[in-house]
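Cross-check.
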Amino acid sequence: MDAFLEWITNNPSYAHYSVLGLACFEALIGIGLFISGALLLSLAIFLYAQQLLSIEAILALAFTGAVIGDQSGFWIGRWIGPAFHTSQFATRYRRHIDRTETLIRRYGWGAILIGRIIPAIRSIVPLVTGISEYSALKYIIFDLLAVGIWTTLLGLAVIGTSSLFVG
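Predicted model, tokenized:
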């Protein structure tokens, strides 16, 4: 991570892409299981503390990246449909998928909100929601709301912790 932070300091024009990309990748099915939200938080704190990006830019880019990732997962789920459950990926991550399906069945739109906050299922909720044939319009509305809440929490964490790294 240090090498990347040094590189981004020397190439600040790529800071925007790094926030957008990391927010998108951590929400994407498959990739999101391996990319921790802590990486995005660390990068955002660094960029803000070093004044490479404003908090407004960081949050707008994170919001956009998260929406792109979530919506991609939902529409991939719609495209794949119920056949997904027999895939090798579904077999490998059965426990996470089962938890997510239970959450969606039990709480519906609330699962979308909760799923955005819980890292272990963040990238799976959109896919499973798409597979379950949940209303696309409802999903878009609740996903935008959930990403808005998530972005607000990210902003509070960045502002609240960045002072620890300045000086």
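The longest helix spans residues 136-162. Residues 77 and 128 are 6 Å apart (CA to CA). Passed to J.P. for a second look.
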